[in-house]
Amino acid sequence: xxxxxARFLSLDAARETLxxxxxxxxxxxxxxxxxxxxxxxxxxRAELLGVSGRKLASDVQATLVLLAAHTAARAIAxxxxxxxxxxxxxxxxxxxxxxxxxxxxxxASILLEEAFGYEDEVDDFDADWVxxxxxxxxxxxxxTREGVDAxxxxxxxxxxxxxxxxxxxxxxxxxxxxxxxxxxxxINPEHLEALMEAEITGQxxxxxxxxxxxxxxxxxxxxxxxxxxxxxxxxxRAQLGDDDA
Length: 245
Prior knowledge:
Number of strands: 0
Protein name: Conserved uncharacterized protein
């Protein structure tokens, strides 16, 4: 988890920073990033300043998550280890027509996945994984509907038997619908969980094995297309129980 996500998930820390800004108290560089993020999200800023006992805890938490993740997204744009990858990801998204808000949200979602998407220690920040995930963005941003259809067709047709081609077709269609229904995004553990539940769990054993094999092979294809990085591929294969992950 990025340190700024950890810090500003605290309601006390977030409100204290906003109050310091209101009173003109000196602010640290990290606090200035949070203030800039809050200014870009006035509704969420107002919600934090107006929190009372009547406010649902889940609503407050969602606001904190949004502001903390977007603050961290601003921070990595300035961090030497991640600034280059962040700039390239931003340029790719903006170049394909994404708005500034959509671009910030995309990068923030990568940081949230790093923080909460895997069973790692959340106190640690895996900058290498984030750099790799940012490196996936140009290929994802350039992927069109026609490109997705071409991937599906090519993957489906390369099965050695009719049963294998059926499994490949079903898995690819389902995963692309789950993960990319609103546009290409990084394939993550939630996508695989949804795929398992919809297409694999509860099926006859032979069909389960065929579809699991097709899922692993599809992830490998997406990796060769630079839509999935090596670390993501390894984690997703491990989630599927692939012994070779």
